[in-house]
Amino acid sequence: MVSLWDMLSLLSVGTTLGGAVAAAQFARGDSARYTLGIFLGLVLGLLSMAAIRKAGELVFRTLPPDGTSTKPPARLTFIYVAAAVWLMVPSPMLGLWVTGSIIRAVLP
After folding, report:
1. How confident is the model at residue 32 (pLDDT cuts 50, 70, 90)?
2. For residue 86, is pLDDT > 80?
3. What per-residue string of b and e applies to 27-46 under the rule 16 or more CB within 10 Å gives b?
4. Residue 71: DSSP 8-state
5. How far apart are CA 93 and CA 20, in angstroms?
6. Whole-number Å distance between alpha carbons of 49 and 10
7. Measured between alpha carbons, how far is residue 1 from residues 39, 47, 53, 54, 81 in Å?
8. Whole domain around residue 18: which residue ranges?
9. How far apart are CA 68 and CA 64, in angstroms?
10. Which positions ≥6 away from 34 have C-beta within 8 Å?
C-alpha cells in the first residue's frame, strides 16, 4: 500500500524534474539542453527524494507504538508540512537554478 509519505517522496522527484526542464526551456531548449535538463533533473530529484526519505525515517523512528496516543505528535505534523513546503518552492527552484547554471556552463 502506498502512503502519503511515499507520494510526497515521489512528488519531490517530479517537482525537481519540472524545475530542471524549465531551466532547459529558458536556455533556448534544443534537444541537447532538454536531454541534459532531464538527466540532471532526475539525478537532483532522486537526491531530493533520498533526503525526504531520510528525514522521514528519523522522525518516524521516534514515534510511539501504534495505539498508545490519540493525538499525533507535533513532530509528525511538522515533517508532513515541511515536506509539502519543500515540494512547492525549494525543490523546483533548486532544480531550476542548478540545472540552469550547468547548462549555461556546459552548452553556451
Report:
1. very high
2. yes
3. beeeeebbebbeebbebbbe
4. S
5. 9
6. 7
7. 29, 23, 17, 20, 22
8. 4-106
9. 7
10. 21, 24, 25
Is-contact 4 80, C-beta < 8 A?
Answer: yes
| Alpha carbon distances (Å) from 2 to 17, 37, 53, 80, 103 | 21, 29, 14, 15, 35
Total domains in the fold of the chain = 1
Which amino acid appears at position 66 of this protein? D
The predicted model scores a pTM of 0.88
Cβ-contact 40, 98 below 8 angstroms: yes
Question: What pLDDT, on a 0 to 100 scale, did the predictor assign at position 108?
Answer: 80
DSSP state of 63: S
C-alpha 32/C-alpha 38 separation (Å) is 10
Chain-centroid distance, C-alpha 65: 28
Looking up cell 505534523, which residue turns up? 77
